[in-house]
Structure formats: structure tokens, C-alpha cells
Design brief:
The chain is mainly α and about 100 residues long. Helix 1 packs across helix 3 (about 45-60). The two termini are about 15 Å apart. The chain is built from five helices and no strands. The radius of gyration is 13 Å and the shape is globular. Residues about 95-100 have low confidence and may be disordered. It has one domain: Orthogonal Bundle (Non-ribosomal Peptide Synthetase Peptidyl Carrier Protein, Chain A), CATH 1.10.1200.10. Helices cover about 60% and strands about 0% of the residues.
């Protein structure tokens, strides 16, 4: 079975990510620039881990928190996410112990 990713599928993840980060940083979601790096937004490693955990809980996506360092903004992460998940399911990228 082929897993199809498109804008309609990524938009809810984008919106959730913005709301989650805004809540963590005590900001209004409109203040979150999706092109800004997680570091520039002020996220630390614990908040990144919470973000990864929330994606699994709310969307069933097992992601490696280290992926957020390779793709350090909401936009870059979501752009890479479909390929990362596909590669992880085929064992082509490390999931650092996170099941895919």
C-alpha cells in the first residue's frame, strides 16, 4: 500500500505544530513563523521531544526527535516528513529507537 502525502494531509500537522509551539512558548499562534528555526523560536530539546511525542499521540506519526535538528523549521520539517517516514519504514534512516 502506498502512503499518499499531499497538502491536505500536511496542513493539519502544520496547524497543530504551530498551536503546540505557541502554547509551549506562551505565544499567540499568529506569532509563530513557520520558516523560522526552532532555535530562533526558542524551543529547547525537551520541547522538541514533546513535539515529536505529540505528533505520535495525535497523528500516529513515529518521528525521531533528531529529525527536527536536520530540518529545523516547521516548513522544512513538514517538507521532509513524508520522505523521512517512508525511508524509516524501509530501514533507510535511523529512528534512534523510535518505532516507525
Amino acid at each position: 500500500m502506498t502512503d499518499t502525502w499531499n497538502a491536505d494531509r500536511l496542513l493539519p500537522i502544520r496547524d497543530w505544530s504551530v498551536k503546540s509551539i505557541a502554547s509551549s512558548l506562551k505565544l499567540d499562534p499568529s506569532d509563530i513563523d513557520t520558516a523560522a528555526s526552532f532555535d530562533d523560536l526558542g524551543l529547547d530539546s525537551i520541547e522538541i521531544a514533546v513535539l515529536a511525542s505529540g505528533l505520535e499521540r495525535d497523528f500516529g506519526l513515529s518521528v525521531d526527535p533528531y529529525w527536527f535538528y536536520d530540518y529545523p523549521s516547521i516548513d522544512s520539517f513538514l517538507s521532509a516528513l513524508p520522505g523521512l517516514l517512508a525511508e524509516a519504514s524501509e530501514g533507510k534512516v535511523s529512528t534512534k529507537g523510535v518505532e516507525v
